[in-house]
Amino acid sequence: TDGAQESAAEGSGKSSKKGDKTEGKDKRAQGIGVRGNALRTAWLLGAAVIVLGAALLVTYLFLAREPGEQRAVLRQVSFNYATERAQAIGAAVAGLQQRVVAAAASPVALDAIANADSGAAVTAETALQAFFPEALSLRLLSLGAMGTTDLDGGDELRNHIEVDLVRRAGGGDEPRPEAYQYEGQWLLSIAAASVHPAIAERRAVLLVTMPQELLGTWLAGSGELAGQYLLQQRFNASSGGSSDIDVMSRGSGVDEGTETAAVPGTDWKVVFRPSAELLAEVRGIGRGDFDLILLRGVLALAGSVLIWRRSEAALAKDVKQVMDSADQRK
């Protein structure tokens, strides 16, 4: 009986130790599980910060920075196109003016002035016309003692704009070229004085008029049009005001990003409106920033997921090793 009691007591002690061992193992596992949950919570918080930061950054770029930068880039691109065309037209006008001035001072023109004969003037005009094959008309208008042309002598001018050009050129000014409408066409006239060096009272004005096709060629330039080019001329009213008049346009464009540039040596300016294709191209410039930010966000999120998964696996492995070691020691 005593032996049986001792055996039962011994068995009860072993069962108690085994239960204590199992209970200790469960407590250790529970503690490590709590740490795993804390790690998971930290990862979720970090992932939320990454996603929220990327979302805020994309929102800022999309709503604030990118539209402003795109508008600035579009304005600069449009201004460059307008300036380039305005300078090209200015250079063409300057070259044409130099040709008119040289023709007015040529021996052919001076001989016609010295002869003071209408037939000599017609002969000179025919000879000078060969130097301006693109001209619509060329007239060598003799000036009287008052510096005005003799309209009654057959030197009929088209309108008051040509009269004003002749008057200013005959008075010693260097009038700027003028574009004007005549019989449904836009014409361009340039005037230059012709003064005989030996006979001061013998003077004339060479008036060269170009057709609107020349203006259209200058405005269109060469190559494909990136938008609409509009040529405007400033008219000064007798009342003192001024206004910009549309002369002609080439190409098509949209109002967004419209820029202007003055044509050197003239009262003209070029207005450029970008085409829909150019507008779309400029808007796509900043698209790479969005793609890069999204890619970085996805990579950061994927990296954090990988770290979390590897950390969980490493933690589970470490837990198993610690618990196995503890069991072996006991």
Can you give a write-up of this model?
The chain is built from seven helices and eight strands; from the N terminus they run H-H-H-E-H-E-E-E-H-E-E-E-E-H-H. The mean pLDDT is 78. Helix 1 runs antiparallel to helix 7 and helix 2 packs antiparallel against helix 3. With 330 residues, it is an alpha+beta fold. It has a four-stranded antiparallel β-sheet with strand order 1-4-3-2, with helices on both faces. A four-stranded antiparallel β-sheet has the order 6-5-8-7. The longest helix is centred in the first third of the chain and has 103 residues.
What secondary-structure arrangement, pairings included, does this model have?
Elements: H1 2-104, H2 107-115, H3 118-129, E1 137-143, H4 160-170, E2 178-182, E3 185-195, E4 203-210, H5 212-220, E5 227-236, E6 242-250, E7 259-262, E8 268-274, H6 276-283, H7 287-329
Helix pairs in contact: 1-7, 2-3
Task: Kindly report how far apart the N and C termini lie.
Answer: 32 Å
The strands making up the biggest β-sheet line up spatially as 1-4-3-2
How many β-strand runs?
8
Subunit arrangement of the protein: single chain
Low-confidence stretches: none
Mean pLDDT over the residues: 78
Element-by-element helix/strand order: HHHEHEEEHEEEEHH
Q: Which shape, going by the Cα principal axes?
A: rod-shaped
Strand content: 15-25%
**Count of alpha/pi helices:** 7
Share of helix, binned: 55-70%
* CA radius of gyration: 45 Å
> Which structural class fits the helix and strand makeup?
alpha+beta
Q: How would a textbook summarize the main sheet?
A: 4 strands, antiparallel
